[in-house]
Amino acid sequence: MDPLSDIIGLLRPTAAISKPITARGRWGVSYRAHDAPGFTILLEGQAWLRFDGEEPLRLAQGDFVLLPTTPAFSLSSEPDIDCIPVEPRNEAIRHGEPEGAPDLVALGGTFAFERVNAPLLLALLPGLIHIPASEGRTTRLGRLIDLLAEECATDYPGKELIVRRMLEALLVEALRWRSIGNRAMPPGLLSGMRDPALARVLQAIHADVRAGWTVADLARMAGMSRSGFAARFGEVLGCAPIEYLARWRMAIAKDALMRGVKSLDRIADEIGYESASAFSTAFRKRLGCPPGKFAREVA
């Protein structure tokens, strides 16, 4: 698989919570930071999203917002309105006037990842992915949003399952859309996948994680000098090439240990270590505990 598919496959994302959000009139709510990737899809109307210390962002009908981590934020009908603190809930939410047809209809919620490797994805993604309807409407992402809106408006049997699966597909499509877009992005995997030379390197690393890759090997693959490649990789990915390889190897190892179906010898061989002892030493140095203890704690 390609690097993005590899990482998402390892994380096994699911739509943990999805709920309808409606509002009418003047309203504003604020939420504390919470440890879960959040999303919002505006099905009708508009709203303003603000993070502490930043300018408000206008969200319009058809917009999709994904927050790989969810910092404190406010959502409101106007950009400078006072917001009241509220707590996340797992049920339908109504803001503003309780009666009357809503001005805003949205779907919001959170995704769940396998906890042992969630930091891996969060470290490789931008803090905010905003896909305006004007940019996503003609893509499959736009068609997915239309299908999701249609499903939400029905009460057919199996609705909850269909909505969850559509949201999971929407997550992957949003990440893929962002990776081929044209706007500036922070360092991370998606930035690396946009760079043809670095994309070749990332594909090779993920295709053969067992290989004894060196910076010189990877630089030749990228068609660059060793020093130029190392500098470029660090700038675009946010870490050195061998550090990226080590992180990915440990991510695979943590997933295998969590599942508990492979021996240390087999895990070591599959991710490129000469022995279980060498793997255990590297794991302890990076994670602060031996593999066996890690496996017991996450079981």
Helix content: 40-55%
Average pLDDT, all residues: 86
H/E order of the elements? HEEEEEEEEEEHEHHHHHHHHHHH
The strand order across the widest sheet is 9-1-10-3-6-11
The 3D shape can be described as: elongated
Distinct helical segment count: 13
Write structural notes for this entry:
With 299 residues, the chain is an alpha+beta fold. The protein has 13 helices and eleven strands. It has helices at residues 3-11, 118-124, 133-136, 140-152, 159-179, 189-194, 196-207, 215-222, 226-237, 241-259, 264-270, 276-287, 291-298, and strands at 14-24, 28-31, 38-44, 47-51, 57-59, 64-67, 73-76, 84-85, 93-96, 104-112, 129-131. The strands form two sheets. A six-stranded mixed beta sheet has the order 9-1-10-3-6-11. The longest helix is centred in the middle third of the chain and has 21 residues, at 159-179. The model has no long low-confidence stretch (mean pLDDT 86).
